[in-house]
Amino acid sequence: MLQSPARRDHTAHAMSTTPYPIGIPGRPWGEEERALWRARQTRKRSYAEDVLSVIERLRPRFDVVRYGQLDYPPECYPLYAIRSRDWSETRPVALVTGGVHGYETSGVHGALQFAERHMADYAGRLDVLVAPCISPWAYERIHRWNPHAVDPNRSFRDGSPAEESAALLRLIAPLRERVLVHIDLHETTDSDEHEFRPALAARDGKPFEPGHIPDGFYLVDDTENPQPAFQQAIIEAVAEVTHIAPADADGKIIGSPVVAPGVIRYPLRELGLCAGITRARYVTTTEVYPDSPRATPEQCNAAQVAAVRAALDFALANA
């Protein structure tokens, strides 16, 4: 989720009066507080079983590129991307990224499902590169930060403090001018409001201001390069799978004005967001709401896949 300062769910008012259990209100964390926070994080699922096993299954059909390794003792995590086997160096590139925030599950599994079920459909038309799980340590702990309490999705810039972000930037550097379309897969969850935003406020020594979690799917367009027809094509495709988030009473989603049904805009490069790492004409960030009573995990994954396919199809039709 792309955090914004004006959101609230049904528990937010009650929780806003309870100090976060780490740190002193009003004082940014130091290394002691970060270590306390890190000690609270426990491994809840397996990157090897959930992600690497699927990538291994895809090796006979696609090229698998190891683009880095995260060393977080006692663990290390190899980083892999899946690439079209008929890579040409002349065709435009489609980039699909997932798991920048490891807890956003459908971003990871949606990227893998797209690769497994539909990536071959674009052979000979696009060079497709899928980086399905950019933050495996956070994936295993169902968190948005890396072990240094750094958010990778504010860190896609030169001299990045997040190795997750730096590794992807190195992978993409030779391709930046060739990327035609980039879709970055995310979720907005209820835990954003009762855990992750309070933790962010505590880490930075700021007061927590409750916000609103939208019920449904939405997209984040680029303020500096808006592509309304592209965003609309994705919304229409996803609407066949799951519901689209409505605007709140102020005409906003997560504090940002709704510019079209289910669409807001952020300055992607300025904020150091993953979706701003290339010069692609067509760029978007998806936001699935997995906690909705109207959506199953299967629907969430399917919504991500539908978004990817619609993005690539639109880019090809309008290149």
UniProtKB/TrEMBL annotation:
SUPFAM superfamilies attached to this UniProt entry: Zn-dependent exopeptidases
Sorted UniProt keywords: Hydrolase, Metal-binding, Zinc
Q: Does the keyword Zinc apply?
A: yes
InterPro entries (UniProt xref): AstE_AspA_cat, Peptidase_M14
Database matches in PROSITE patterns:
PEPTIDASE_M14
Q: Where is the composition biased (Basic and acidic residues)?
A: 1-12
The record's Gene3D superfamilies line, in alphabetical order, gives:
Zn peptidases
Presence of keyword Nucleus: no
| Cross-referenced CDD domains | M14_REP34-like (cd06231)
Report what the protein is called: Peptidase
Give the originating organism.
Answer: Vulcaniibacterium thermophilum
